[in-house]
Amino acid sequence: MCRLLGVVSDRPVTVADAVGEVVLKDFVALTKIHGDGWGVARVEAAGGSPAVVVSAGSALDDPEFIAAAAEVSAPASIVHLRWATAGLAVRLENSHPFVADGLAMAHNGSIRPVEPLEAMLTPEVAAKLRGTTDSERYFALIRQHRRTAANLREAVRDAVSELRAVYPEASLNALVLGEGQLVAVHAHARTTLPDDDIEQLSAVDLPAEHVEDYFALRLARPDDHTVVIGSTGFGDLPWQPLPPESVTAVALTDLSVTSVPLVAD
Hints:
This protein has nine helices and 13 strands. The protein is an alpha+beta fold and about 260 residues long.
C-alpha cells in the first residue's frame, strides 16, 4: 500500500511550492507507516519523457528526497511513498515510480495472486521487468495496451478494465505521467484493508482517513496555475473527490481535466 501525490502546473514548479511546505510536511509524515521507499518522477517539458529518482529508504529527513521535492522545478511530478505489501522485498528495483517507454507510473494497491496478471503480458513486455512487484507488472500491462490505444488515457483505461475483470476487489489506483498528461486511476470500489493493516494504521498517530477512506484519490486546484491529485490523510487543500471507478487525465498544456468511466456505458 502506498501514498500518491501528483502535481501539474502551467509553469515549472517544485512539489513543495505547488502544494505548500505544510502540505508536503503532512505528506512526508505518512512515512510513520509508508517508509519502505520513495520516488519522484518528473518531466522537464510538457511533452517530455519522465526522469525518476527512487530510494528503498524512508523519505523522512532524506536529503535526496528534500532535493527532489523542494529544489527541482518541473511542469509535472508524481511522488510516491511505499508501504511494502507483505512478502515483497524492500529494495530499489521495487520502489515506485517505475519508468519505461517514455512513461512513469506509481500504484497504490495490491494485485494478488499475481500469476493471472503475468499471463496477460507478452514475452517482449515481460522481459523488461526488473523487480518483483505486482505494480511493475501493472505498469507493463499499461505499456502493452499503449501500442494499440488511441492515446495514453485510453491505454490506461483498457489495462485497468482488463484487470478489473479478473481482480474485482483489487485497488488499481495509480498515477501515470507522460505524453503531455498526468493520468489518475481511481478504481477501488470493492477494496478493503486487511485487518493487520488496519491495526498498524490505528497504532500510529495518523489522520482517521487512513482507516476510513484509505484508497480514495482527490483533486485540488490550490491556485489558477496548479492541479494536484493526492491520496487521503494529508494536506489542507480544497480537495474534491475523483469520480469512482474512473480514469482522469490532466493536460500539461492547459490544465484541462477529463474523466471517463472504466467501462463505457
